Amino acid sequence: MTNRRAVLAVTALVLVGGRLRAAPELASGLSPDDEALVKRATDYLDRLGTASGAFVQTAADGRQSTGEFWLQRPGRARFDYAPPSGLEIAADGHVVTVVDERLKTIHSYPLGATPLSLFLARNVALDRGARVEAVAHTADGFSIRVRGGRGAARGSITLAFRADPLALAGWTVTDARRASVRVQIIRLERSAPKTADFFVLRAPTPEQGAAQQ
Fold first, then answer.
1. Number of Cβ within a 10 Å radius of residue 61
2. CA-atom Rg of the chain in angstroms
3. Cα–Cα dist 110/105, whole Å
């Protein structure tokens, strides 16, 4: 998986920080019940401040990887993939940094250019540069599909929720070529705040890269 695709995969969450509140732009076919679910999800995400957990990521080709994550809204998140992946991804409030310890590379992207900007802002808002396209009911909850701004070229994010009690269950990122990456949250819990340095990644050393071989 390329660094870029890894960023798109995890930062759909995660599966969530801009502003999903106020009056989101909704598809005309949504029922009043569906609109109520969007509002319920919005209120939940706005209250989700500091949390941690574990995830399973399924790539478009079916390959799976696991890891742990930490959220600290506004602005900060970190995803550590379990070996042999060697990937670490963190948002420090300004940029999203991707470290690949196997390849000994480091890349950074503006936070606002990734799906994390939807989740990590001070107030969640699906109405800012995005559109709620559909709400689907599942066996244990519901999902909300959000399309990026300026047409289909931006792809979409589907956020999944368990209904009782309400909890974020994961997300699926679908790119412009209809390739999808799914992230399932297998544990989500409130956690103590981390220091700002925890969300700052640095370039791997040669020794770190060798340890992942």
1. 8
2. 17
3. 17
Burial 121-156 (b: 16+ CB within 10 A, else e): bebbbbbbebbbbbbeeeeebbbbbbbbeeeeeebb
E strand or H helix at 32:
helix 32-47
Q: Which amino acid is at 69?
A: F
| Assigned fold of 3-193 | outer membrane lipoprotein receptor (LolB), chain A (2.50.20)
The three-state secondary structure class of 31 is coil
- How many angstroms separate the CA atoms of 91 and 155, rounded? 21
**Cβ distance 75 to 111 under 8 Å?**
yes
Q: How far is the C-alpha of 101 from the C-alpha of 78, rounded, in Å?
A: 15
Domain-wise residue ranges, the chain: 3-193
Q: Is the dihedral of CA 178, 128, 111, 89 positive or negative?
A: negative
Note down pLDDT in tens along the chain; length 213 residues: 555 555 555 544 433 333 333 344 555 578 889 889 988 988 888 788 888 999 999 988 888 999 999 988 777 889 999 998 888 998 888 888 889 888 888 988 887 666 666 666 655 555 455 678 889 999 999 999 887 554 444 567 788 999 989 999 988 888 767 778 888 999 999 889 999 999 999 988 765 544 444
Q: Coil, helix or strand for 45?
A: helix
